[in-house]
């Protein structure tokens, strides 16, 4: 990870357990910036998913498995186990790392545990991205939007202007292609191994964030049952939506800090 990926990070010389915050789609590490400013931690890393406002490495196919391998490499490079926190697709990747590489983790936290419930159904836009032709048309249209219109669209979803601007600036042909590849690698029949291994995530302490107004990651039943399968505790954040960490950064920082301190 570069220094740019560690906006709140120090050298790590204190011996404190590193925290890794992973963003989702269609986002950048900016989604975590307000929380990082409020976390009283000496080493915080916010890696950028390949293709999301940056190039993809040679041979990188932007599937969910490729992103898991990338995240495993990012954590392994730190040289010691971490607290892993993921939002949206970052949350799905977090669960998969917990399933397959518990040796890299002290704890994990995800706001996307509903994705590993057998009854989860991808939201409408995800299904468009998973559809050949329709997906290409959608990401081309997104990339072609006037930036001011695109920023206003993100703001209408409750995303503050700085983050909305960062997301729009990052969305280009590379990001569009990455989005399509990622979602097409996660159609229901290809999610089976992740669902089948969900109980393996219980090998490390887990926290499932349930933002009650989030329409994208499953309802309360799915989250509760998936959390039970993965061995995770559930923290409920009433009234906040998918971008809960941007809607109330102070609450998000307190929620995460309480979890991290309990497992340091």
Full CATH superfamily name of the domain at 17-121 and 191-263 = Alpha/Beta hydrolase fold, catalytic domain
Estimate percent helicity: 40-55%
Low-confidence stretches: 6-13
CATH topology of the domain at 17-121 and 191-263: Rossmann fold
Level-1 CATH class name of the domain at 17-121 and 191-263: Alpha Beta
Total strands:
6
Radius of gyration: 17 Å
Overall average pLDDT: 94
Strand proportion, as a percent range, falls in 5-15%
How would you describe this structure to a colleague?
With 264 residues, the chain is α/β, with parallel strands linked by helices. Strands 2-1-3-4-5-6 form a 6-stranded parallel beta sheet, sandwiched between helices. Helix 1 links the parallel strand 1 and strand 2. Helix 2 crosses helix 3, helix 5 packs antiparallel against helix 8 and helix 6 crosses helix 7. The radius of gyration is 17 Å and the shape is globular. About 3% of the residues have low confidence.
Helix and strand layout, with pairings?
Elements: E1 19-22, H1 33-38, E2 44-45, H2 64-78, E3 82-86, H3 89-100, E4 105-110, H4 124-129, H5 134-143, H6 147-156, H7 161-170, H8 173-184, H9 192-196, E5 206-211, H10 220-230, E6 232-237, H11 244-247, H12 249-263
Parallel strand pairs: 1-2, 1-3, 3-4, 4-5, 5-6
Key features of this structure:
264 residues; alpha/beta; Rossmann fold; 44% helix; 11% strand; globular
Brief characterization of the structure:
By secondary structure, the chain is α/β, with parallel strands linked by helices. It has helices at residues 33-38, 64-78, 89-100, 124-129, 134-143, 147-156, 161-170, 173-184, 192-196, 220-230, 244-247, 249-263, and strands spanning 19-22, 44-45, 82-86, 105-110, 206-211, 232-237. Strand 3, helix 3 (89-100) and strand 4 (105-110) form a beta-alpha-beta unit.
């Amino acid at each position: 990870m570069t220094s740019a990926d560690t906006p709140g990070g120090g050298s790590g010389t204190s011996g404190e357990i590193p925290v890794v915050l992973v963003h989702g789609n269609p986002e950048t590490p900016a989604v975590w910036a307000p929380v990082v400013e409020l976390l009283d931690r000496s080493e915080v890393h916010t890696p950028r998913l390949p293709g999301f406002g940056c190039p993809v490495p040679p041979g990188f196919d932007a599937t969910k498995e490729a992103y898991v391998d990338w995240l495993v490499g990012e954590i392994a490079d730190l040289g010691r186990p971490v607290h892993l926190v993921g939002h949206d697709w970052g949350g799905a990747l977090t669960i998969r790392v917990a399933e397959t590489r518990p040796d890299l983790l002290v704890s994990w936290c995800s706001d996307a545990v509903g994705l590993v419930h057998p009854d989860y159904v991808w939201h409408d836009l995800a299904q468009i991205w998973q559809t050949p032709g329709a997906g290409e048309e959608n990401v081309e249209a997104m990339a072609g939007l006037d930036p001011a219109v695109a920023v206003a669209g993100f703001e209408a979803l409750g995303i503050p202007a700085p983050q909305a601007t960062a997301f729009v600036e990052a969305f280009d042909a590379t990001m569009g292609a990455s989005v399509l590849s990622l979602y097409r690698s996660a159609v229901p029949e290809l999610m089976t191994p992740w669902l089948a291994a969900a109980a393996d995530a219980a090998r490390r302490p887990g926290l499932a964030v349930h933002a009650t107004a989030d329409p994208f990651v499953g309802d309360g039943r799915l989250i509760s049952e998936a959390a039970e399968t993965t061995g995770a505790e559930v923290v409920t954040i009433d009234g906040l939506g998918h971008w809960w960490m941007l809607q109330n950064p102070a609450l998000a920082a307190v929620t995460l800090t309480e979890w991290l301190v309990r497992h340091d």
